Amino acid sequence: MKFFDCATAPSPKRVRMFLSEKNLDITVVEVDLGARQQHGDAFVKLNSHRTVPVLQLDDGTTLTSSAGICRYLEAAHPEPALMGRNPTECGLIADLDWRIEQEGFLAVGESFRNRAKSFKDHAVTGEHPHAQIPELVDRGRTRAEHFMSWLDKQLNQREFVAGDQFSVADITAFVAVDFAKWIKLEAPAEQKNLHRWFAAIAERESAKA
Amino acid sequence: MKFFDCATAPSPKRVRMFLSEKNLDITVVEVDLGARQQHGDAFVKLNSHRTVPVLQLDDGTTLTSSAGICRYLEAAHPEPALMGRNPTECGLIADLDWRIEQEGFLAVGESFRNRAKSFKDHAVTGEHPHAQIPELVDRGRTRAEHFMSWLDKQLNQREFVAGDQFSVADITAFVAVDFAKWIKLEAPAEQKNLHRWFAAIAERESAKA
C-alpha cells in the first residue's frame, strides 16, 4: 500500500490525520505540487485527475479522494472506529463529514483557488483548465464564515463534532478551520465552542501528522 | 422513520432509488419546494439547512444529506449491499460516488442554479442568500461535459460504474446524467458505454422511484 502525499497541502492532511489516529504506518511518496509534479506523465498515469491524496492498494486499486481512502482504511482497519460503531453513528458522522467538506473545506478552497496567482486557469482541481472567477473569492469566504458559525453551534455542549467520540468529522473540520488561515480567516473570539474544540484537537498527536 | 422528499427534485431522487433498491417502504412526507415550504418554520426547525432529502430516525436523529442517509440505510439494512462487500469495494465505491457527486451532480446543479430565475439570490443551497454568478452557468456545463466523457471511459467494459455489481455510484451517476437534461445537456451519441449503461439503469424498478 502506497500513500501519495504532499506535506503542505490541506487535502492529504485529512488522510495523514486519519492514518495517525489508526496508528497505521505506510509507505509515503511525496508529490511536489509546487513543482507541478501532479501534471507529469508518471503521476497522471496513476491518477488522471492529477490530485493528491492517492492511496494505491497492493492489488493496484487506486483511490483518489479522501472520502474513498478513509472509507477503505476504516473497513480494512476498524479500530479505533472513526466513522461510527452502529448505523445511527455511521449515518450521523457521514452526514456531518459531508456538510463540513462542502460548506467548510471546499468553501475555503473556492476562495483561495480563485485568488491565488499560482492557480490562475486552474481554479478547479483536476486535469481541465478553468479560469478564476473573482466573485468566488468573496463568496467562498462568506460561506466559510457561515460554516464556522454553524460549527460553533454544533459544538455547543459537545466534546466532538458528532458527540462524545472523536471521528473523521473532527478531522475534516479541523483541517478546514486550519486551511481558512490561507485566506486570512480566523474564527471570531466569541465562537468559544469552536476555539475550545480546535485547541483540544490541536493537542492530539495526529494534528502534527 | 420518516423521509422528507420532493418528487420533482434530483437530490431526494438519489435516496428514493436507494430505498427502492433496498426494498424499503417508509413513511414519506412531501415537501413542496415550489411553494418554498423548505423555508417555513416547521421545516426549518427540522432542518436548518432548508434542503431535502431529510431522514428522521425514530430516536429523533435527523440526517440531511444523501451521503448521511444512504450510509445509515446501508448499515441498518445491509442487503443488498450498495456500498461494497469488502474493504476494497467499500473504498472504490465511496471514491467513485464522491467524484460523481462533485464533478457530475454538483456541476449540473452549479449551471442550473446560477441561471434559473427561481434561484435568483439562492444560487447555493441552504439558508443563506447568494447571488447568481453568470460565469458559473457555462463553467458548470463544461464540467458536466467533462464528467460525461470520464463516465463513458469508466464504463468501458464495465457493466456498472464500479465493476460488475450495481452500487450507489450508479444511482448518483444516473441521477446526475438525468439532471443534466435540466440544463439541456445530453451525452453525445458517440459515448456508447454511457448510453448502454443509462438505458440499462433506466429499466430498473428503482429508476421509476
Question: What would you say this structure looks like, in words?
Answer:
2 copies of one chain form a homodimer. The first copy, chain A, has 209 residues and is of the alpha+beta class. The first copy, chain A, has 2 domains: 75 residues, 3-Layer(aba) Sandwich (Glutaredoxin); 122 residues, Glutathione S-transferase Yfyf (Class Pi), Chain A, domain 2 (Up-down Bundle). In chain A, 47% of the residues lie in helices and 6% in strands. In chain A, 45% of the residues are buried.
In a few lines, what is going on in this structure?
The structure is a homodimer of 209-residue chains. Chain A is of the alpha+beta class.
List the helices and strands and how they pair.
Two copies of one chain form a homodimer.
Chain A: E1 2-5, H1 10-21, E2 27-30, H2 41-46, E3 54-56, E4 62-63, H3 66-76, H4 87-113, H5 135-154, H6 168-179, H7 192-202
Parallel strand pairs in A: 1-2
Antiparallel strand pairs in A: 1-3, 3-4
